[in-house]
Amino acid sequence: MVDFTGYARKPEPKWVYSLMILGGFLALVVFYAIFGFLYEYSETNRSEIVKPAQKSAPGKIQEKKAMTLAEVIASKWQAPASIEAVIITSGISDGNLPVDRLEFISRSRGGKLYCYTKVHNISGKNQIRHVWVNPSGGAAADTKIDIDNTISNVWSYINLSGKSSGTWEVDIMTMDGKLLAKKPFNITE
Fold first, then answer.
1. Is there a single domain that holds both residue 170 and residue 112?
2. How many angstroms from the chain centroid is the CA of residue 37?
3. pLDDT of residue 151
4. Is 3 a domain residue?
5. Based on the domain organization, do 173 and 98 belong to the same domain?
6. pTM recorded for the entire structure
7. Distances (CA, A) of 139 to 17, 106, 116, 143
8. Structural contact between residues 171 and 179, judged by C-beta atoms closer than 8 angstroms
């Protein structure tokens, strides 16, 4: 009798199939991200171009400008900052934090009045505005503040001298005018 030693085939590694499936899935995601975005970009531009010109004043026609790819990306993916805290205070410490919390401020106290804002910045560089609104509803001050870090402690201030008494507020807004937060306070005699 002859013993026959057969050929035993090595089992194929299973990780190769998992890698192929994962690679295919990633390719689909990338394909959709690129071509879906470009399709949306072309539709955005087409709708901007096809729209009729808008009249802004008698005899004047204002045409809408088509958006560039960079403007579309910025408008789709730039998220605004979110406000975590707004505090009216009499000062800011060396650690960029408020020294107290004020709701009623005596005008006779004089000096500066600060609006401290803790901002959670979602995307890159951002800007916000502190608009100090007096009791009659007018803007007493409008301060533009640059936000560079993910979490920023920022503030603006006004001088109390010569300010009218009543209920004031600080509106924290984006540069395009979207209201993020509002902080009321009272200035007394």
1. yes
2. 21
3. 81
4. no
5. yes
6. 0.57
7. 65, 20, 18, 11
8. yes
Give me the mean pLDDT over the 61-72 stretch: 55
Instruction: Compute the Cα dihedral for 156, 109, 185, 164 and give only its sign.
Output: negative
Q: Residues near 122 by Cβ (< 8 Å), separated by ≥ 6? A: 79, 80, 81, 82
Structure tokens at 9: 């085939």
Burial of 81 (0-12, 13-18, 19+ CB in 10 A): buried
Name the helix (H) or strand (E) containing 47.
helix 15-50
**Residue that terminates a domain, selected from 27, 53, 76:** 76
The tokens describing 5, both together, are 């030693």
Q: Scan for tokens 């975590």, then name that residue.
A: 84
The structure tokens listed for 25 are 């899935």
The CA angle 52-58-63, to the nearest 5 degrees, is: 30
Q: Nearest to residue 82, comparing CAs of 122, 114, 115, 116?
A: 122
* Residue range of the domain that includes 167: 79-188
Report which residue type is found at 59.
G
